[in-house]
Amino acid sequence: MTRAPSDRQRPLSPNIQIYRPQLTSVLSIGNRITGIALSAYAVALVIWLVAAAAGPDAYAAVDAFIGSWVGRIVLFGGTFCLFFHFCGGIRHLVWDAGYGFSLRAIYASGWAVVAASIALTALTYVVGAILAGYGP
Amino acid sequence: MSNARMRSPLGRALGLGSAKDGVEAWWRERVWAVALAPLTVWLTVSILMRADKGYAAVVAWLKMPVTTTLMTLLLVALFHHIAFGLQVVIEDYVHSRIKIPVLVGMRLGCLALGVAGLVAILKIALGA
Fold first, then answer.
1. Assigned CATH for A23-131
2. Which of B48, B75, B120 sits opposite A53 (nearest CB)?
3. Does the predicted interface ipTM exceed a cut of 0.85?
4. pLDDT tens digits for A53-79?
5. Considering CB atoms only, which of A60, A96, A131 is closest to B49?
6. Closest partner CB to B120 (pick from A36, A42, A50)
7. Quick one: which of A38, B2, B59, B115 has the most CB atoms within 10 Å?
8. What is the distance in angstroms between the Cα of B15 and the nearest Cα belonging to chain A?
9. Domains observed in chain B
10. What is the dihedral of CA B61, B62, B63, B65, to 10 degrees?
11. CA atoms of B63 and B76, how far apart (whole Å)
12. Domain chopping of chain A, boundaries
């Protein structure tokens, strides 16, 4: 006996699992994921400020974590997330202003976000290394 | 910016868009995002210039009135932006009965964290 059509479990639109990932969709979910991740970094910023207000000992504990290998990796990830979300956010603001909706412009701005977030992350670490005395 | 200015006359006449305060909410999200952008650049450059400088240097920097002002503005803009962003995420993915408690908890969490950050900044600025 066949069930009524309405009883069947039909796949729901938009069927994300059968789509080949595209630049547009990856950047879209990427902006959301980095935004959620950056919320955790905002908590870290508050912890850092509270530690600085609490005194040298509390600050030293937080500083020790930031200086550890885990802390450095977390900070590197946060730097990339920040620039990615920043560039993606500016792309969204340009769209909100009514510009850049042609397919060509959307792909150009998309690759610009990818390139800029990688370049800005690299620039930050190069400048950081030079300021720390590792550079020329 | 009022609802009236952001909506086109035709859109209003046809009853397009949100029936309630959608335009207002959309506009608020953009204003806080625009405010946050330059403040983020300032914080990133400032932290980069003071990495590995130690407690005394960081506190001396945080005590400067310019820093206190900009950090206050940054925390206010940042936690508004986070609250708006996480609200959209929660509304998209949480469909059960816990949606409203999760939304309220997230909002209160943003408020608490923002206030904690502000108190820390003021404590440093006022030299306690």
1. 1.20.1300.10
2. B120
3. yes
4. 999 999 999 999 999 999 999 999 999
5. A131
6. A50
7. A38
8. 21
9. 26-125 (1.20.1300.10)
10. 100
11. 18
12. 23-131
